[in-house]
Amino acid sequence: MSALLVAVTGTSAQAWYDRFREAAPQRDIRQWPDEIGDPAEIAYVAAWKAPHGLLKDFPNLKAVFNLGAGVDQLMADPNLPDVPIGRAVHPDLTMRMTEWVTLHVLLHHRRQPLYMTQQTKRIWKGHDQPAASDVSVGVMGVGEIGADAAEVLARLGFRVAGWSRTAKKLPGIEVFAGMDALPAFLARTEILVVLLPATPETEGILSLDLFRQLKRDGALGGAYVVNAGRGKLQVDADIVTALDQKILAGVSLDVFPVEPLPADSPLWAHPGAILTPHNAGDLSPRDLASNVIGEIGRLEQGKPLQHAVDRKRGY
User: Fold this and answer.
1) Residue 44 confidence (pLDDT)
2) Are strands 136-140 and 191-194 parallel, antiparallel or unpaired?
């Protein structure tokens, strides 16, 4: 028997299970932790933040499907079985991430935090507004989501460039590649959009040293960071220091090294920080459940996954 186990941690666990049942009513679908049944019957696991060590208990496991954009929590499992891992890829996920990025780039570009502060004080005062064509935006991480965000921002008129650890090509957009090219990419960037995966090489990359390399004398008169990638990319203490010292003029953060963000974090009340609760890429369980069922169908036909994690790269 080839059962599918839905192993989701959090308040959305029941919604995910229900959507999988709707997407494949003929399939044996079980819910962790109460309906696992015989571990030998589990062939597939659809997981989000499942506890480490769970997957090793299924001797006939054929594939694992990650129900979110980031696979770092899953890949950190020291007992992760050597089976294919499916990535969460869906047009709706890409669209939602691009929406969030575009929203926050525009918030900083159009000085919306300043106007919201003025509103609370009943101040009617306009400020110089540069054109998008005068503002340099840099996108770190130009995979499927990053490429889409870069293209949308370019269509809005921003001077967009990308950076990737390996060479990439985007029509009409300059892409810097490799660590040697990172300083030049940062030096031309006023608004830094971060959509990198979390790997040993990228952990802590958003540090004071990096922030100091951003362009602060451009059209916006300061540098901004918009991170919707992974929390482990950023050093929260360095972000606070950079804001306090005016190295950064503002930040938008959707992800954090520790989630939920601790109540005593100074980021909560910092006037230069806009925070969201890791919801930039919130995806409808219905959409992704259908995607996973389709991928399982491919495996059962002897075909490879369309969207598989590269274990060597970690994403």
Assistant:
1) 97
2) parallel
User: Strand 224-227 to strand 250-253: parallel, antiparallel, or no bridges (unpaired)?
Assistant: parallel
Rounded distance, CA 42 to CA 53, Å? 15
pLDDT, average across residues 158-171:
95
Statement: 3-90+283-300 belongs to CATH 1.20.950.20: no
Phi and psi at 178, nearest 5°, equal 90, 160
User: Which residue blocks in 177-227 are alpha helix, DSSP H?
Assistant: 182-187, 208-212
Catalytic residue among 230, 286, 307, 313: 230
How high is the pLDDT of residue 10?
Answer: 83
CA distance 113 to 224: 12
pLDDT higher than 80, residue 69: no
Query: Which H helix or E strand runs over 290?
Result: helix 285-300
Q: In this structure, what are the phi and psi dihedrals at residue 123, rounded to the nearest 5 degrees?
A: -100, 125
The answer to whether 296 and 4 are in contact (CB under 8 A) is yes
Amino acid at position 203, single letter: E
Which of the residues 96, 108, 165, 278 is marked catalytic?
278
| Tokens of residue 79, six digits | 């007992």
pLDDT tens readout for residues 23-34? 999 999 999 999
Does 278 qualify as catalytic in the annotation?
Answer: yes
Rg (CA), the chain: 21
Q: What is the DSSP string of 93-122?
A: HHHHHHHHHHHHHHHHHTTHHHHHHHHHTT
Q: Does residue 230 have an active-site annotation?
A: yes
Q: What is the DSSP letter of 270?
A: -
Rounded Cα distance, 234 and 236, in Å: 6
* pLDDT > 90? residue 179: yes
Give CATH for domain 91-275: 3.40.50.720
Per-residue pLDDT at 222 exceeds 90: yes
pLDDT one-digit tens code per residue, 262-305: 999 999 999 999 999 999 988 778 778 998 999 999 999 999 99
What is the Cα–Cα distance from 4 to 40, expressed in whole angstroms? 11
**Segments making up each domain of the chain, as ranges:** 3-90+283-300, 91-275
On average, the pLDDT of the chain sits at: 95
